[in-house]
Amino acid sequence: MSLDPLALYDLYARYGALIDAGEFDAWLGLFAAECSYHIMPRENWERGLPAGLVYCDSRAVLEDRIRALREANKYNIHTDRHLVGLPRTVGDDNGAALVEAPFAVFQTEKEGESRLFATGLYKDRIVAMTGELRFREKFVLLDTFAVPSLLATPL
Amino acid sequence: MSLDPLALYDLYARYGALIDAGEFDAWLGLFAAECSYHIMPRENWERGLPAGLVYCDSRAVLEDRIRALREANKYNIHTDRHLVGLPRTVGDDNGAALVEAPFAVFQTEKEGESRLFATGLYKDRIVAMTGELRFREKFVLLDTFAVPSLLATPL
Amino acid sequence: MSLDPLALYDLYARYGALIDAGEFDAWLGLFAAECSYHIMPRENWERGLPAGLVYCDSRAVLEDRIRALREANKYNIHTDRHLVGLPRTVGDDNGAALVEAPFAVFQTEKEGESRLFATGLYKDRIVAMTGELRFREKFVLLDTFAVPSLLATPL
After folding, report:
1. Option in C85, C88, C144 nearest B108 (CB)
2. pLDDT tens readout for residues B58-99
3. How far apart are CA C85 and CA C151, in angstroms?
4. Residue C10 contacts A where some CB pair is shorter than 8 Å
């Protein structure tokens, strides 16, 4: 499966922008009907430990999670800013493209300080559905295990 | 109005690179003859308050501002490094394309420390003039109101 | 010499990703058989001083350096995350394209803290070899002279 690079760039640009804008319904629309969303620290991934910080193995669970985040977010008011590097296709598997992209997320607290929140690598499976690219699997490999326990917005 | 994505990417790459290189005349050349340049903190924008940190509503005012910045810069010696995320077209209006791109600016002081200076979102209007893309409106939405008062270089 | 922008984007995406993944043999494969790799702080570059932090003027020297880094890395365990901005071609010289791209490198220490490590500008010469783009010269212009003396991985 060979993806149009420009369509891929647009998908990742929208992915980060929709989180930062708080448009979570549109963000969910970037996922396939059957999808998963994982956040895992690098330590666990390198040791083959399955435990992740966030594990949503269906779209229903991901939608629930987003609803919960919106509630939690009322008590952790901040804004996100995603910078996603150029994605690249590294292989394919069963009709899905394996795509990787580095990212950094910056957060700004109510007091006005902007700071680095997290860096990592997206390791995703992407499918084309009726001409549009969608995430079948979103795997967020975090560079650190030491993220604040309250992940109030998706990464 | 539909823009060539690669021309758009090139415009944003040049926008950041020319500031970082201190090539402000070439940077001004990225703006249309009729143009505006605003910097506004997110708080004001979300509340509909018009007050911005920088407000240039014509090219003459923007050119003046750049001249003033160059003077101020003599007393605030630093270097900038812009990282601009992938821009995406989100709509169009009256022959202009509405384009958004996230950014982070890092500054390095004379003592040699590099640090995060600001993050935000460009929300721009872009027109095609004789085959070249130009900024009709540059709107810099800053994630924080707490930037140092002396903005010695454009964002 | 006119490069395909998408091939150029892919080259820079791979450049950063292969360092972050520790795949240094594949990373070396992005360089031409005759190549150089320099890291120079901005101060020296602006004053025309030739002294750099790293100076490899042949592929053999670069390969040696990478071997040494791998040894040193055992005592400075960290992970890198490169964010490379959109590259742009700024000229050409003797069959090589002159290409620039801004970058930020974040590091995560064993204790789990992710932080900004360095920012700068790649100023490279790129050639096309049997259909593939390769670095003839990689010039890493660092925004600061104050990087830790132990550069345990390439920038």
Report:
1. C144
2. 999 999 988 887 776 666 678 899 999 999 999 999 999 999
3. 22
4. yes
Q: Pick C106's closest partner by Cβ from A86, A88, A119.
A: A119
- Write out pLDDT tens, residues A50-100: 777 888 999 999 999 888 877 766 666 788 999 999 999 999 998 999 999
pTM: 0.94
Residue B155 has pLDDT above 80, yes or no: yes
Whether the CB of C145 is below 8 Å from some CB of chain B: the reply is: yes
Instruction: Please work out, in degrees rounded to the nearest 5, the angle formed at the alpha carbon of residue B42 by the alpha carbons of B37 and B47.
Output: 105
Which among B130, B131, B127 is positioned nearest to B32, based on CA atoms? B127
Evaluate whether B53 touches B65 at the Cβ level (below 8 Å): no
Chains touching chain A at 3 or more Cβ pairs under 8 angstroms?
A: B, C
> Shortest CB distance from B143 goes to which of A10, A86, A108?
A108
Cα-trace Rg, chain A: 15
Q: Which chains touch C (3 or more CB pairs under 8 A)?
A: A, B
- Is B2 touching A (CB cutoff 8 A)? no
Mutate to test the interface with A, among C10, C18, C77, C83 (most CBs of A within 10 A): C83
Q: Are C142 and B112 in contact (CB under 8 A)?
A: no
Strands C54-56 and B54-56, sheet pairing: unpaired
- Chain C nearest CA to A86, separation (Å): 6
The pLDDT, as a whole number, for residue A69 is 78
DSSP chain C: ----HHHHHHHHHHHHHHHHTT-HHHHHTTEEEEEEEEEEEHHHHHTT----SEEE-SHHHHHHHHHHHHHHHTTS-EEEEEEE---EEEEEETTEEEEEEEEEEEEEETT--EEEEEEEEEEEEEEEETTEEEEEEEEEEES-S-S-S---S--
Q: Does C65 touch chain A (CB under 8 A)?
A: no
Contact yes or no for B121/B90 (Cβ under 8 A)? no
How many contacts (CB atoms, under 8 Å) link B and C?
63
